[in-house]
Amino acid sequence: MITFTKSMLKGAVAASAMMAGTMASAETLTMSSWVPPTHFVHTDFLVPFTEKVAEATEGRVTVTILPAPLASPPQHWELARNGVADITWGNFTYEPERFVSMWFAEFPNAGTHAEAQSRALWRTYEAHLAGNAAFEGVKMLAVGMFGGGQLHHGSKTVTAPEDLANVKFRMGGPIQEKLLSSLGAVPVAAPATKAYEMLESGVIDGSLHTMESVVNFRLEDSLEHHTIFPNGFYDATFFVIMNGAKWDGLSDQDKAAIEGIIGEELSAAWGKNFDLQNPAAIEKLGAAGHEIVDASPELIAAVDTIYDTMVADWVDAAKAAGVADPQAMLRFYNDTYKSLAPQSAVPVSQ
């Protein structure tokens, strides 16, 4: 028979209370993701993030990636804002009217070093956009860019402006639409996840992607001609967010722990992955016999002219969307990117 002393009993009660308190404070967060579990965003970015959350909070907060997305890619901001999922990631481009303020980072010539871009975008968000009404209701965990999107065609070389006349390209947002239509091409709006079936059915002739996206969305048999713009033909902006009320409900200890692994650090991790993936994709596609060519000076000049018009039009739209000084914000991003780019990975065009 086991006899407990009074001190042993007090110790057992205290330990039980501590365990109960720990169990009560444990939090499991759900994440909805819309890429397949084999995609590098899942394996190399999202999964490590969930592991870091558990490690930083000593297991008090865990993140479970759901086995299937709860909605289409354009709906993932609302999933988190409304608390249907606790954490989501997605593309600002898919809700262009809500995120007019972000258009500046999707213009041509935004850069080809994704880590530097993503760090610069995070700093720009903190300095100029954190209080903007478009971002209310969520906790911003990270923002990111992908190192310059390029032109891809299924059957012909595209180097000069006249090569784009009446060519149907899949694209994802208003910046890409403006670029294509101004160059005489026919823009067809759809998420990147729809590109394969649209190419196979002949709905489109080509598609806008990063080089890695051609490989990771398994489009290499459908897109064999690639046109490279040295500073990017366009870009896309991404978010990782958490429901605001769910964030507020975490303990101060856990919020402080998670703050240490999000923000610029998580944004940089996003960009680093693209800086690894894009050159690897160029090597793989080149080895497979794909045609990879530089845009002609005439095509680059045509895009630069469109860029100037885009910026002028965006300034007015951004002011209407609550940005106090859009030109200053654009300068801030560009200057920050340029200061960071030499320290980043190899550009996509090399």
Automatic annotation (TrEMBL):
InterPro entries in UniProt: DctP_fam (IPR018389), TRAP_DctP_sf (IPR038404)
Extent of the signal sequence: 1-26
Subcellular localization(s) per the UniProt record: Periplasm
Entry-linked CDD domains: PBP2_TRAP_Dctp3_4
Keywords carried by this UniProt record: Periplasm, Signal
GO terms (BP aspect): transmembrane transport
Coiled-coil segments: none
Domain of life: Bacteria
Main localization of the protein described in the UniProt heading: periplasm
One cellular component (GO) term of this entry: periplasmic space
PANTHER family cross-referenced by the UniProt entry: BLL6794 PROTEIN, PTHR33376
Name of the protein this chain belongs to: TRAP-type C4-dicarboxylate transport system, substrate-binding protein
Species in which this protein is naturally found: Ruegeria marina
